[in-house]
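Figure 3 (text version): C-alpha cells given as input.
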C-alpha cells in the first residue's frame, strides 16, 4: 500500500513526501529491490540526485547487475553535486562493487 501511495505522490508532484515514505519502507525492509527502484525515482524527481544514483545502483546490485551498479556510481561521482559525506559513501560503495565485479570476472575465466 505504501508503494502505491508513493507512486501516486511522485506522479502528482509530491516526490519529497514519497521520499519520506519510501525511506521508512527501506528502514523496515532494507534490501528490497522494488522499494529501492521507486526510491530512486522519488529522489530524482525531488532533485536529490546523489540519493537517486545511490538507490538506483543498489537496485541494480540487488538485481544481479553489478556492472550496471558500478556505472551508476561512476556517473554519480562525476555528475551529481555531492557533499563530502555522499561522495565518500558512494566512493566506498563503488570500490566494493568494483572488487566484487573483478571477482566475478576472474571466476568466470
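Below: residues designed for each position.
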Amino acid at each position: 500500500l505504501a508503494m502505491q501511495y508513493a507512486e501516486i505522490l511522485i506522479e502528482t508532484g509530491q516526490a519529497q513526501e514519497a521520499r519520506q515514505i519510501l525511506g521508512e519502507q527501506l528502514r523496515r525492509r532494507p534490501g528490497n529491490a522494488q522499494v529501492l527502484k521507486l526510491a530512486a525515482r522519488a529522489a530524482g524527481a525531488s532533485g536529490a540526485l546523489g540519493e537517486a544514483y545511490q538507490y538506483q545502483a543498489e537496485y541494480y546490485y540487488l538485481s544481479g547487475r553489478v556492472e550496471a551498479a558500478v556505472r551508476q556510481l561512476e556517473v554519480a561521482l562525476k555528475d551529481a553535486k555531492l557533499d563530502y559525506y555522499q561522495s565518500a559513501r558512494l566512493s566506498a560503495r563503488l570500490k566494493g562493487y568494483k572488487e566484487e565485479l573483478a571477482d566475478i570476472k576472474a571466476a568466470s575465466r
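The helical segments are 2-11, 15-28, 33-45, 49-62, 66-79, 84-107.
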